Amino acid sequence: MAVGVRLAFALASRGGDASGGWVLARVRCGEGAEAAEWLRGEALRLAVRLDPGPCTRWAAPGTLHPVREPGPDAPTSLRAWAEDRQRQARVRHLLAHGRALSFHFPDPGGAWYALTAAPLAPPTPESR
Description:
By secondary structure, the chain is of the alpha+beta class. The protein has one domain. The protein has three helices and four strands. The chain has helices spanning 32-50, 74-83, 85-96, and strands spanning 9-17, 20-29, 101-106, 112-119. A hairpin with a 2-residue loop joins strand 1 (9-17) and strand 2 (20-29). The two termini are 21 Å apart. It comes from Streptomyces evansiae. This is Formylmethionine deformylase.
């Protein structure tokens, strides 16, 4: 894929467990930079909804508290992935080159979350 070719991407966030998986959000973005920003924003959106933190305004005081379970922690992993500048630069680079990407974030008890980006085929002259 030549750099500079404007590709559209199909993006999705999914979540699931042993019983199956579900699409949580889906969008089409017009270029790699936009797709990278959507993936980053979706990671942060999921992290906040899964683990809002004890200072969340909508929760009554004392409602939310830390839980220490062994194993992977999806909200923490999602935040770390979204806030890692080097990882985000790599995501932008790969999307600029038309690469499909998939990121998997496991959670205790077998739950999981995934973010995916797949380039869409450019329109053919006949389809325009």
